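Example S7 (structure tokens).
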């Protein structure tokens, strides 16, 4: 990537200072950009590449190179090979988040050799989404390097569907990294998801990738940029005509994310208006989204977003009111059921109600331990509960459950 930018700069006869002036940084920063193998600032990379004329597709290939030919080793028995992979994933997951993230780093730098005799990519992507929905974060983190490698191998076909699948894998990776609070890596994977979605031409893949990028931007306090991105994504989905339930689900999800983004940016009127639009968009959707749908939005899911929107606007009372009639059984996945608990817990904690906070978190933990254990913001509430209200029922159990992650 750095070499491409250097070649483009030299082709134009520019000095380091010349390019730095054009992209708003120092000559020393340009020099580091051209010499580093790892990405430090993805926005700067894109600005530099555009300035020197590196085509987007070429830049994309340098950021996430397609793997070479598959290894010639042939497994005698596909079932045995599958068992070996499962054993390896289990062993890798046991190594802990640090080792798993290092393995993911290596996969992002250069995808590994595709697996021989592996089940179809669609099946494994669906299984990976099930791990995410179940809150099995470490197991999913262990599976992602091989899934990325195989998705890259599939995208070598240059078929739009295979490119959209690769975008979907990067979007899922981003969603997991956001859960784990690893926003730096999430920024990289979100950008790749958007790039491959753009190449594929799939509006739904683009919507999913834009949503994850907007969440990353929100975590980086770039609320205006996140809102612009989500507005464009919502408009693009609406332009499809919303003739299918899948498109209507995507549109409702875009509006929900846009509302929460506006709320986090302090734009109360925009946030509440978007929630009203999201409710209208969700009216035609079933009470429970079909299994496997990319955007599993339902009317109850929109109401759950309203809890988060009111909390983000600083109105804990309205948040609790929005969620008072919601029940875990309205949500098909453990991740959403736990999210109901954690969102209500945040509102109760803002209202200084430790008993209700602990009860909501216990409910979330029973649905999906990872949603409480692995999310930094929720772990922080557990820590504060343990410090301020150690005798409140459930607090010691919660603190013991998340203590390894906290410590």
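Recovered sequence:
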């Amino acid at each position: 990537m750095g070499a491409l930018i250097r070649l483009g700069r030299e082709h134009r006869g520019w000095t380091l200072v010349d390019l730095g002036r054009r992209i708003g940084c120092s000559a020393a920063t340009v020099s580091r950009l051209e010499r580093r193998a790892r990405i430090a600032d993805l926005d700067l990379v894109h600005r530099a590449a555009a300035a020197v004329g590196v085509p987007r597709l070429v830049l994309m290939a340098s950021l996430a190179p397609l793997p070479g030919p598959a290894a010639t080793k042939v497994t005698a028995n596909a079932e045995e090979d599958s068992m070996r992979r499962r054993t390896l994933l289990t062993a890798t997951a046991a190594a802990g988040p640090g080792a798993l993230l290092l393995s993911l780093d290596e996969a992002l730098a250069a995808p590994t050799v595709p697996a021989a005799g592996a089940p179809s990519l669609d099946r494994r992507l669906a299984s990976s989404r099930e791990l995410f929905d179940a809150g099995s974060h470490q197991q999913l983190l262990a599976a992602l390097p091989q899934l990325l490698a195989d998705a890259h191998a599939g995208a070598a076909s240059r078929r739009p569907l295979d490119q959209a699948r690769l975008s979907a894998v990067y979007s899922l990776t981003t969603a997991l990294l956001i859960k784990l609070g690893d926003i730096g890596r999430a920024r990289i994977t979100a950008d790749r998801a958007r790039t491959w979605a753009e190449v594929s031409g799939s509006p739904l893949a683009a919507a999913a990738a834009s949503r994850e990028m907007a969440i990353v931007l929100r975590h980086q306090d770039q609320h205006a940029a996140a809102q612009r991105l989500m507005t464009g994504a919502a408009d693009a989905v609406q332009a499809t005509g919303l003739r299918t339930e899948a498109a209507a689900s995507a549109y409702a999800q875009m509006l929900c994310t846009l509302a929460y983004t506006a709320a986090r940016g302090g734009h109360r009127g925009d946030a509440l208006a978007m929630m009203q639009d999201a409710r209208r968009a969700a009216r035609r959707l079933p009470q429970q989204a079909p299994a496997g749908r990319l955007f599993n939005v339902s009317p109850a899911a929109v109401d759950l977003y309203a809890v988060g929107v009111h909390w983000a606007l600083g109105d804990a009372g309205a948040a609790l009111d929005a969620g008072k009639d919601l029940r875990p059984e309205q949500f098909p996945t453990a991740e959403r059921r736990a999210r109901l608990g954690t969102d209500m817990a945040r509102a109760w904690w803002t209202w200084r109600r430790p008993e209700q906070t602990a009860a909501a978190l216990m409910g979330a933990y029973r649905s999906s331990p990872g949603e409480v254990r692995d999310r930094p913001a929720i772990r922080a509430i557990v820590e504060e509960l343990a410090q301020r209200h150690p005798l409140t029922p459930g607090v010691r159990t919660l603190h013991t459950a998340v203590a390894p992650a906290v410590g």
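Notes on this example. Residues 65-82, 84-95 have pLDDT under 50 and may be disordered.
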